[in-house]
């Protein structure tokens, strides 16, 4: 009987305002085989994280964009989406705390749901690392008190020793809550092939 690994890549990248996670569900004896495989993997070489000053600059930009009424909603939402990318690359929990609503949910490629607390805990643990994230084919639809951003994210990153690089389609739902733009939900689908 052959044992198989079910490694489900569940994470959000840039523009998704969800830091992300990777879930391993390993049936029975596969757990031992997976532990052996993981111990053979070399640690991912990572570049230094941004300084506290760089993170604070990003957090200030996010605050400004969330409250700014001087530009159109479309421009603001597109800029906030791009800042989510920077926050994910920087592992900037402070910026994501501001951006994500308290009831934020992320729907992963396998259909599982992650809360704001789970999303932020992933970054705090230091297990998730994004080397780069690029966005293209970004489209914004803004309404009176809400907006939707869709696009394609090309990610290079790791969760612990597992590479999570690839191309994804994403959707981010924004709502204006108490006069500030917040991310209320996001979703990501891996592009096959």
Task: Explain how this protein is built.
The protein has 193 residues and is of the alpha+beta class. Helices cover 32% and strands 39% of the residues. The strands form two sheets. Strands 3, 4, 5, 6, 7, 8 and 9 form a seven-stranded mixed sheet that branches. A two-stranded antiparallel sheet has the order 1-2. The longest helix is centred in the middle third of the chain and has 18 residues.
Low-confidence stretches: 1-15, 20-44
CATH arch. level architecture: Roll
Number of domains: 1
Largest sheet: 7 strands, mixed
Question: What is the chain-wise order of helices and strands?
Answer: EEHHHHEEHEEEEE
Strand content: 35-45%
What is the average of the pLDDT values?
76
Shape: globular
The name CATH uses for the topology is: Nuclear Transport Factor 2, Chain: A
What's the short story on this structure?
The chain has 5 helices and 9 strands, in the order ββααααββαβββββ. The protein has 193 residues and is an alpha+beta fold.
């Amino acid at each position: 009987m052959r044992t198989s690994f079910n490694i489900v890549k569940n994470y959000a990248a840039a523009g998704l305002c969800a830091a992300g996670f990777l879930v391993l569900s390993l049936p029975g004896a596969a757990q031992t085989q997976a532990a052996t495989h993981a111990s053979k993997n070399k640690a991912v070489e990572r570049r230094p994280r941004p300084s506290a000053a760089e993170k604070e600059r990003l957090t200030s930009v996010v605050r400004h964009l969330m409250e700014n009424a001087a530009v159109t909603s479309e421009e603001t939402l597109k800029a906030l989406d791009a800042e989510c990318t920077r926050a994910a690359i920087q592992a900037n929990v402070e910026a994501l705390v501001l951006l994500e609503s308290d009831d934020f949910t992320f729907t992963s490629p396998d259909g599982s749901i992650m809360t704001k607390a789970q999303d932020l805990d992933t970054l705090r643990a230091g297990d998730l690392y994004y080397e780069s994230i690029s966005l293209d084919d970004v489209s914004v639809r803004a309404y009176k008190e809400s907006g939707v951003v869709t696009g394609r994210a090309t990610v290079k990153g790791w969760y612990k020793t597992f590479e999570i690089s690839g191309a994804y389609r994403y959707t981010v739902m924004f709502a204006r809550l108490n006069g500030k733009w917040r991310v209320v939900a996001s979703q990501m689908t891996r592009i096959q092939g």
